[in-house]
Amino acid sequence: MIIFASCIILFLIGLYAIVTKRNLIKIAIGFAFIEYAVNLLFALIGFKHGALAPIITQVNTPHNFVDPIPQALVLTAIVIALGTTALMLTVILRIYNRYKTFDIAEIKKLKG
Amino acid sequence: MSFIPLFFALPLITAFLIPILGKIFKPLIWIVSTLVSFVLFIISLYGIAVTQEIPMVVYKMGNWPPPLGIVMAFDSFSAVTVFVISIISFTSCLFSYRFLSRYTGQWKFYTLLMLVIAGMMGISITGDLFNMFVFLEIAAIASYALVAFGIDAKELEAAFKYMVMGEIGGLTFLLSIALLYAKTSTLNLADISYSLQVVGHTPFFWMILGMMLFAFSIKAGLVPFHSWVPDAYPAAPAPISSLLAGICTKVFGIYTMARIIFNVFGLTRAHDPMFFNILIGMGLLSIAFAGLTALNQTDYKRLLAFSSISQVGYILIGFGIGNFYGIVGAIFYILAHGFAKGLLFLTSGSVVYATSTSDLKKLAGLGERMPTTAWSFRFGGLSLVGIPPLVGFFAKLFIILGAIKAGFLWLAVLAILLSILTLAYLLKIENSVFMKKRKSDTKRAPFTMRIGMVFLVVLIVIIGIGFQPVMDFIVGPAAHALLRGVEYANLVFSHVLVNF
């Protein structure tokens, strides 16, 4: 249970970084934290103590496997996270070219 | 072969064909994407016809049966969403042809547009929770890129804000999927519904629901989490604002929320009045706050963006009322607001195309020079306010009827009073853009742009006048599909073998 709670804490650390940090790159790092937290949680959900990798070699062997679905989900989630991180860093670089700063407080051409 | 995979496969294939087609002959990009969205429109009409006879069409991906494989579950509610998506994307494509002439890299635009369409189609027909997340991210990532399409300082800033908010929403949704999987060990919506009936409404269940509500409120741009909307819509090119405001927020936030609340979690007003009251409260907050803020805006598109936030609140109220009429009203509102706000953003695009500005103080007297744009704006605006023969009237009528039937007389009165706000801020645009004396000579809107706008005007009028058949064949069955609640799961499992 503690290990699950620590995933949520990691998630909250990422959220804290996104909300309070003023540097755009640090915000992107905050997202990386959140993505890792969720992926770790998925992997832990499928984990069982002393179980084998989910590869079936013989049909009749009594099997004690870990749940393979979360592992497949994590793979998909990693690919999506890669896409968003790449796009986010591209936008951040473009913003840097336009504004010459990474400070979010100085990027305010739009009034909120 | 089933028609269901076509909904997302067709735009997805087109998206990756477009770069090749652009190398052969440039106008082919536009022709193919418009044609594909029109074909999707035809297929969605066929889908509506099919759902009249079979309440649930199930398509098994790779022929794996439901709890193991991913299924596509197409019912009347999906049919409505798919119908609106195809129409708005068709008009956006039509409109883009001349509007994009001042941008470079047009094939990137159409590729991303097709990806957004594919993602939205996928969300509305999928029967699997993780699949829903994947389609949500496909559509969301493509829309972040589309908002930044102008790559100017303002567009980039808006896109970054949208991306930060959208990703917080998306990742919270993923976290809630993880927690739900830990509890139920399945990802199939129907199967989740079965195991939640066994588990019951524990505090853990409410925590997951709260996280999902948070995620979808961000995606739908409801009031405490709306800050990305008024930046992203004005920054995006007009056809994309039309698509985002017209249908994206509704599919990303409202459709998913309604599907999960009613069909998967099986909540009903009778059992959980507290939760439905929260929905009504959030809706009222959105309508009042965004409506009042819209009154102060001096930018055409920014004003319309605040108006969208406010109108989405009505949809939420409809679902919050939770009886048949309320839900019919909400689904009618998805239709009505999709067409009306799509149309209004197209008129803003036409104004920007002609004058290169969207500042209300600089615009004046365009009404006589651009009659099609002006009259389209008036029809769209009147439908949004709720003037009788137009479709927006029936949407509001059913929500108010639902509120009265549920015993919320104050809510009915409040909904009518708050629609005066809508009239007020739309009159502000009418007054400063289309009335007054003309300052300088402007271009007229090109033919393809006018066709797109007229198409939506015709739909608004026709669906308004012929609301009875639309109610009987499209919206009514969709409301029944939601009110069916957890019966959804039985339908999915019993219709697996019905081939279509």
Automatic annotation (TrEMBL), chain A:
Transmembrane domains' residue ranges? 27-47, 72-96
Keywords, alphabetical: Cell membrane, Membrane, Transmembrane, Transmembrane helix
Task: List localization entries.
Answer: Cell membrane
InterPro entries linked to this entry: CPA3_antiporter_subunitC, NUOK/Mnh_C1-like
Task: Report the membrane topology from the UniProt record.
Answer: Multi-pass membrane protein
Q: Gene Ontology cellular component?
A: plasma membrane
Q: What domain of life is recorded for the organism? A: Bacteria
> Which Pfam family is one of those matched by this entry?
Oxidored_q2
Q: Which family does it belong to?
A: Belongs to the CPA3 antiporters (TC 2.A.63) subunit C family.
Q: PANTHER family annotated for this entry?
A: ANTIPORTER SUBUNIT MNHC2-RELATED
The molecule here is called Cation:proton antiporter
Q: Which organism is it from?
A: candidate division TA06 bacterium DG_78
Higher taxonomy: Bacteria, Bacteria division TA06
